[in-house]
Design a protein that fits this description.
Rossmann fold, single chain, 7 strands, about 400 residues, 17 helices, alpha/beta
Length: about 400
């Protein structure tokens, strides 16, 4: 059979040898399953012009979509993202014994990723070479020590990709959240006592001192969830991470703990937002068990919960009826979960003066000057429209004043 394109043997020997050496990479093999790197491997290994073009195009596409400047930078990122054998050992603080072998394999990867794309282009027929994608190889000078330190400090995979994650209940995997709330503690006005309690507990947790599971309870729109996100944004550089889970995932706590144990140098807040149980909800007992069992003693994980309900259970008319013993037992059961939280922080709706103060502070941060009387009048009108005063309402009003939707003289 006549081939559509003749094979060009020039430079094939070098790239084929590189492909052979890649089969000896074991500590970092998971990274090589990346789409782009698979494409580059294909282009290096083959002498068939169609396969070379297909592989090179796949690598070029992934390189650009990832926003990378060169191939060496791309490989470095994939090594840090992937759950490699070396990464798992390093995250647990056990990488040093693997340094010699890791450096050998990094040398192979250097030879691979620094392959000049012009060598691959010459495998194509001359008429097709002008269409071949070109990229910078860059310089891959990464040592096992450097990688090990990075893994140990920031983890790998989703844990490294973002300081906030969500649990995928179907796969039990952590999915990084890219567009997270960038609120800072300084953005949360008033509530100084509440913020101080949350900060002090979180700092104790980060620093390895005794810390408590936390229940943030109170009126809607008072900043309970924002406080948790602000804590993460503030202390992420010190190894704090957030894993957001739903009520239905509470039974998965033991499995989650095992996964988090792979990152002993990091600290994780398991965050359940706006929690409320129905009567006879099985997850109620699961959370109670987690708070008094293994999760209560986990070294690198705490549970932070927000709720609008003091006892976390939606009460019905039937739950308040019956004999005194039944009503008392129900109340005791609800309080038993409430009491499992070592720290309960209560967020109450602001009074009129506090509400106006929050609005004025937000406007001042944005460089908007509004007369005190005008701010107070606009705030009260908006509170009536919203059905109550809250920091959330104050922020919404500030947004409207800034955009000119609500004019204030």
């Amino acid at each position: 059979m006549t081939e559509m394109y003749p094979k060009c043997e020039k430079n094939v020997k070098h790239t084929k040898n590189t492909d052979l050496l890649l089969h000896l990479v074991g500590l970092f093999s998971e990274a090589l399953s990346d789409k782009g790197l698979c494409g580059l491997k294909k282009a290096c290994a083959s002498s068939d012009p169609v396969e070379v073009a297909d592989g090179a195009s796949a690598f070029y596409r992934e390189l650009l979509s990832g926003g990378h400047n060169d191939a060496a930078q791309y490989l470095t990122e994939k090594l840090l993202e992937s759950a490699t054998t070396f990464g798992k050992q390093a995250s647990a603080g056990n990488a040093e014994r693997l340094f010699a072998r890791a450096n050998t394999e990094l040398g192979i990867l250097k030879r691979f990723i620094e392959t000049d794309c012009r060598e691959l282009k010459e495998k194509l027929p001359e008429h097709a070479r002008k269409y071949f994608p070109e990229w910078k190889s860059g310089v891959f000078d990464v040592s096992a020590k450097q990688l090990g330190d990075e893994y140990e400090k920031n983890g790998y995979g989703a844990v490294r990709a973002s300081h906030s994650m969500v649990l995928d209940e179907n796969t039990a995997k952590f999915t990084p959240l890219k567009n997270t709330d960038n609120v800072r503690l300084s953005d949360l006005k008033e509530y100084a006592e509440e913020k101080t309690a949350a900060v002090n507990n979180t700092l104790a947790f980060i620093e390895g001192r005794p810390a408590c599971n936390v229940l943030l309870y109170g009126d809607r729109g008072t900043g309970k969830s924002s406080t948790v996100h602000a804590l993460i944004n503030e202390f992420a550089p010190r190894g704090l991470r957030l894993l957001q889970i739903s009520k239905s995932a509470i039974p998965m706590f033991p499995a989650i703990k095992e996964k988090l144990a792979l990152f002993p140098k990091l600290r994780f807040i398991l965050f359940i937002d706006d929690l409320a149980f129905e009567e006879n909800d099985g997850a109620f007992a699961e959370l109670k068990a987690a708070l008094e069992g293994s999760m209560a003693t986990a070294e690198n994980a705490l549970i932070y919960v927000t709720t609008n309900r003091r006892h976390l259970v939606k009460e019905s008319r039937s739950s308040r009826s019956g004999d005194d013993v039944h009503v008392s037992d129900t109340a005791e059961e609800q309080l038993s979960l409430f009491d499992r939280f070592g720290l309960v922080i209560t967020y109450l709706a602001p009074d009129k003066n506090e509400y106006v103060s929050i609005l004025r502070q937000i406007l001042a941060d944005r460089g908007i000057n509004v007369a005190p009387q005008a701010a107070a009048l606009a705030a009260e009108r908006y509170a009536i429209k919203k059905g109550g005063r809250s920091p959330r309402a104050a922020k919404q009003l500030a947004d409207m004043i800034q955009s000119g939707t609500i004019p204030v003289e």
